[in-house]
Amino acid sequence: xxxxxxxxxxxLKAFQPLNRLTDDQLVVLASRAQRRSHxxxxxxxxxxxxxxxxxxxxxxxVELRAQDGRRSLIEAETDKALTAVARLQPRMYDVIAVRPSxxxxxxxxxxxxxxxxxxxxSAEPEESALAPGAGDAERVMTELLVELRANQxxxxxVPDVAMKVRRxxxxxxxxxxxxxxxxxxxPAMAAKLVRACNSPLYRGFGDVRNVRxxxxxxGLNTTRQLVTVFALRExxxxxxxxxxxxxxxLWQDARELAALCRVLAERIKGIDxxxxxxxxxxHDIGGVPVLVKAEQHARLVTEPEALAAxxxxxRADVGAAILESWSFPATVLAxxxxxxxxxxxxxxxxxxxxDVVILARLHQQSGQSTPVPALDExxxxxxxxxxxxxxxxxxxxxxxxxxxxxDVKQLLALR
Length: 415
Known about the structure:
By secondary structure, the protein is α+β, with helices and mostly antiparallel strands. It is 49% helix and 9% strand. The strands form 2 sheets. A 4-stranded antiparallel beta sheet has the order 2-6-4-5, with no helix packed on it. Strand 4 and strand 5 form a beta hairpin. The protein is globular and about 70 Å long. About 5% of the residues have low confidence.
């Protein structure tokens, strides 16, 4: 066989973050990359290995296999294949080809060198004069992008109790007693779960008195989601008081969005309201490492507009990396990666979690200074297709659901 045909620049730009490179840089990158082919059943990459390589899936399909037995399919030219496969190192998955598959294999250090010299994306008009913090903002963006590619970003960890509950619930034949035992090991979390179960959102005919009763009433899946939701508050922390104010604003915005997502999901068939609540709360989690990184740039701390611009630029990539490291499901990961794109059209005909996040954000920003597109220009609006959303009412029913929103916000404020 002869050498494979070179990938077109257009094809290369379909991958992230290759789309940040210039045409000249892409030519250099392609000349230093490898093309590898794998047949069905062959191992592409091994869990636990740190090899310094990025595998971009050009054609075919692979399966990611986690240590706990979970499996995830990635097919070429789909959303899951936009970034390098199993990018975090040491690798968290075995990567096995399930169809004849071809990869573009790039050394991470080569890609990082090119990214360091890639031109910065032009700022939006209202952000074009961010001095004096603009230089610091560009440095933070470049540093974080390079560190992200090298798996060196200080990603927050899943709070211990949330990870333990998720693992227990994911096991077969798990009982309410087993989940309650894990939650009860954290007295603060146990108290929150009982109070949540007695809140207007979940209250039954009588109050629950202990964690086991709460788990039985809520069910295992809702318990898992709520424990994660309550644990997330501890992630939004930083050491500098000035940056903690920005972190608190990030958390407040997340709470507002999460409440909107849950109330919206209650009206959308096929969407789990608790998963929508969690997706809304996680939408801006990529801003957390940005704020932590900003601790090293004193001038940027005093420039909230520049800092906000960095968060907007990087939150999708960093947020997706966080959720990959936390082994969150693909539906939640997609809502973080694409939830900030008004024009995003998710594949398939059924409503997706990302559609709920996009529509909730549209409602959240309506009436603010930031311009938003018309409803008929947003694919997520057209896809959800709920009767309550027909016409030009601009989600009027959400305004009428204020009491329900208040109940969700009260839930997220539990201490």
